[in-house]
Design goal:
The protein is built from 21 helices and no strands. The chain is mainly alpha-helical. Helix 2 crosses helix 3 and helix 6 runs antiparallel to helix 7. The structure holds fe (ii) ion (FE2) (2 copies).
Length: 480
C-alpha cells in the first residue's frame, strides 16, 4: 500500500534557495514582529513570574505564526523569492506596529484589507488568507481591544478580498472591488456595530456614530484605491506577477511581440499555434492558463536576433545553415535563440516566471539534425556540445510548452486525411522521447497529467484539421 501511495504522488518540487543574508533579514523581521506583539506584557508592574511566562508564550506564539506564514507561502508558491517573503513579513510588521500607534485612530479594516489585496494578487489566495488570520490574531490579545462585530466584519471582508484578489484578471475588476468592499463594510458596520451604540432618542449621538462608520469606510476606499495605484510598483520592485500584469503582457500590441510578427512572421505563427496547444493542455490539467499563454507568446522571442536562420521564417529562400556548412556554428545559433531571448526578457523587464519559459522550453534537448551532420563529417564532438544549456522544465507549465513546441511542427505537417489514431501516435511518440531524455524529470507532471496533455493536443489537432477542410464551393451560393 505504501509503495502504491508513494508511486501515486507527484514529486515535490525543490523550493527556491534563499541566501543566508536574506534568511537573516527574514528572521530579524520575525523577531521584531514577536517583540512588538509581546513587549507590553513586560511593562506591567509589578512584574511577576506569571507575567514573564505569558510574555514568553506570546513571543513564541508570534514567532511560530510567522514561521507558519512563510511555510504556507512557500507551499503555495514553491518559487517564491526572498524579496517576496520579506514583503510579506514587512506587511505583518507594519500591521503589528500600526496596532500599537494608530489603533485608536484608524479602523482595522484599513490596516488589514489593503495588504491582503496585494498579497492575494501577487502570491495567491491561500497565502493571503494565512496572512489575514495571523495579522488578525493578536487583536484580541488585550493590547488593543476591538469590538467583536467589527472583528467579524474585518475577517469577512479580508477573506472576500483574499479569495477574489487571487482570481481578479483586470484592473477594472480591482477598482470594482475597492468600491464594493467599503460599501459592504459600511452597511455591515452600520447594522452590526453602530446598532448597539445608537440611542434613537439622542440624534446627535446617532449622527456621530454613523459619521464614524462612514469615515472608516471612506478611508478604506481611499487606501484601497491607493493600493491599486501602487500595485504596479510592487510588481516591479518585488517581482510580483499579478493576473492583470500577465494579461497586459499577453497583449499582442506589445512592442516585442509586434516586432516578432513583423520580423519573424513564421515564428509568430508557430507561437500562436503553440499558445493554442499549451492553453488546451493546461486547462485539462488545471494549471495556470494566463501564465502559459503569456509564457508561450515570449518563448521564442530570441529568434529575433537572426530570424532567417530558423526554418519557419525561410520562406523558400536559401538556408544559411547550408551556406556555412558548419554544424558547430549552427548549434551555436540555435543556442543563441535562448541566450538572446533571455537578454530581450531582461531589456523588456519581463517577470521571472515568464522569462523562465525561454530556457526551459528547450531544456537540455539534443539538436539531433546538426549532431548527426557533425558525426557524418567525422568532426570530433561531444554530445553535450549539441544540447541546449537548460535547465529542464521546472514547472508543469514550462513542461507543457516544451511538449507543445515538440508536437506543433509534427501536427502541422501531418496529412489532412490522417486519422485521430495516427495523430495520437505521433503526439505520444514525441512526448515519450522527451520523457526518456529526462526532460520532464523536474516538472512535477504525473502520468495521469501526461495522458490528459496528449488528449488535449489531439483535440487541438482535430480543430486544426476541421479548419483546413475547405467548404465546398458553389456558383449558386448567394446566401453566405
Ligand atoms: Fe525555441
Ligand atoms: Fe518554439
Amino acid at each position: 500500500m505504501f509503495y502504491l501511495w508513494t508511486r501515486s504522488q507527484v514529486p515535490v518540487k525543490e523550493p527556491t534557495r534563499i541566501s543566508k543574508i536574506d534568511n537573516l533579514i527574514i528572521f530579524l523581521i520575525c523577531t521584531l514582529i514577536s517583540i512588538i506583539s509581546s513587549y507590553k506584557l513586560l511593562l506591567i508592574s509589578p512584574l511577576n513570574i506569571s507575567n514573564i511566562f505569558t510574555w514568553i508564550l506570546t513571543f513564541t506564539e508570534s514567532l511560530i505564526c510567522s514561521g507558519i506564514l512563510i511555510l504556507v507561502s512557500k507551499k503555495e508558491n514553491p518559487t517564491i523569492s526572498s524579496r517576496q517573503i520579506i514583503l510579506l513579513m514587512t506587511f505583518l510588521l507594519a500591521v503589528q506596529a500600526s496596532k500599537l500607534s494608530l489603533a485608536s485612530t484608524i479602523s482595522p479594516l484599513s490596516m488589514i484589507i489593503p495588504p491582503a489585496l496585494i498579497i492575494s494578487q501577487g502570491m495567491g489566495s491561500i497565502t493571503a488568507l494565512a496572512w489575514v488570520s495571523i495579522a488578525s490574531l493578536s487583536w484580541s490579545d488585550s493590547l488593543v481591544a476591538i469590538d467583536n462585530n467589527l472583528f467579524f466584519i474585518v475577517l469577512v471582508c479580508a477573506t472576500i478580498v483574499s479569495l477574489l484578489g487571487g482570481r481578479i484578471r483586470s484592473r477594472a475588476q480591482l477598482l470594482q472591488l475597492s468600491i464594493f468592499i467599503p460599501i459592504g463594510s459600511f452597511l455591515s458596520q452600520w447594522i452590526l456595530v453602530s446598532k448597539d451604540k445608537i440611542s434613537l432618542i439622542d440624534k446627535q449621538e446617532f449622527v456621530f456614530s454613523i459619521g464614524g462608520v462612514f469615515s472608516d469606510s471612506l478611508l478604506l476606499a481611499i487606501v484601497m484605491l491607493f493600493t491599486i495605484l501602487f500595485i504596479p510598483i510592487f510588481e516591479s520592485i518585488f517581482g510580483l506577477l499579478t493576473k492583470a500584469r500577465l494579461l497586459e503582457l499577453a497583449d499582442k500590441e506589445k512592442p516585442l511581440i509586434r516586432r516578432l510578427s513583423l520580423e519573424a512572421p513564421g515564428t509568430f505563427e508557430h507561437t500562436l499555434l503553440i499558445c493554442g496547444l499549451a492553453e488546451e493542455a493546461t486547462r485539462m490539467i488545471g494549471g495556470d492558463i494566463d501564465l502559459i499563454k503569456t509564457g508561450a507568446l515570449y518563448h521564442d522571442v530570441g529568434k529575433l536576433h537572426a530570424p532567417n536562420w530558423f526554418i519557419e521564417n525561410q520562406d523558400g529562400s536559401k538556408n544559411p545553415h547550408d551556406e556555412i556548412d558548419n554544424p558547430i556554428r549552427s548549434a551555436e545559433v540555435l543556442q543563441a535563440h535562448v541566450d538572446e531571448g533571455l537578454k530581450y526578457a531582461q531589456k523588456n523587464r519581463l517577470p521571472k516566471p515568464i522569462a523562465d519559459f525561454i530556457p526551459e522550453h528547450q531544456g537540455t534537448l539534443k539538436m539531433g539534425y546538426f549532431f548527426h551532420k557533425a558525426k557524418e563529417k567525422n568532426i570530433k564532438i561531444k554530445e553535450n556540445d549539441f544540447r541546449y544549456n537548460g535547465p529542464v522544465p521546472q514547472s508543469k507549465e514550462t513542461a507543457i510548452l516544451m511538449l507543445a513546441d515538440g508536437c506543433e511542427a509534427a501536427l502541422r505537417a501531418m496529412n489532412i486525411n490522417a486519422s485521430d489514431k495516427e495523430a495520437l501516435e505521433t503526439i505520444s511518440k514525441i512526448i515519450y522521447s522527451r520523457q526518456q531524455d529526462g526532460q520532464l524529470i523536474d516538472s512535477n507532471l504525473s502520468k495521469g497529467e501526461i495522458f490528459l496533455i496528449k488528449r488535449a493536443f489531439l483535440n487541438v489537432w482535430k480543430r486544426i484539421r476541421h479548419r483546413r477542410i475547405q467548404y465546398p464551393s458553389s456558383n449558386n451560393n448567394t446566401f453566405s
